[in-house]
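User: Teach me something about this protein's shape.
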Amino acid sequence: MRLNSRKTSNQPAAGGLCQACGLCCNGVIFADVRLQPGDDAARLESLGLRMTPKGQGERAEFRMQKFPQPCAAFEGCRCRIYAERPQYCRKFECVLLKSVQTGTTDRKTAFGIVRAALERAEKVRALLKQLGDTDEQQALAGRFRRMAKRMEQRGLDEQTAELYGQLTLAVHDLNLLLSEAFYPGTGS
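Assistant: First, the predicted structure itself:
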């Protein structure tokens, strides 16, 4: 899928794209978000974000708290704490959004890419559910890794092996689209 499908000099703002997407908040793109200097962890916790304990590494970036994805403040493709969201959330712009903002990708194409990514993520969720994983509180990649370990530890009947094969391909298809259209620094 090419992002630079059409370039116009008077490209309208990317209005509505983030509200139609939510992949950076729903556990599809990120497993967690690390707090930045200036973020008030106690305030964010009081607003409902679940914080993970500080890491024990010696470097400062490993001592920063983080909160897991899907984000507890993400409701219906909207941020419940938008005005007080963490710094990383304020600054993050995916490759697709930047592409629309610069006029490299038109909005119709961008919405199509978002729709495709959401459909691929939903396919992964459905296959995980069929295989017995219903934990919607963990990021999709973590759920897949956990499922892969489960599949390695037990003998698979033919039906389970088929479903797991479908899951593996669905995750691969989703990751291809995410790496091309959404991840910072990897888009076209």
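Now, about its shape. The chain has a mean pLDDT of 87. The CA atoms of residues 124 and 171 lie 6 Å apart. If you'd like, I can walk through any region in more detail.
User: That's plenty for now, thanks!
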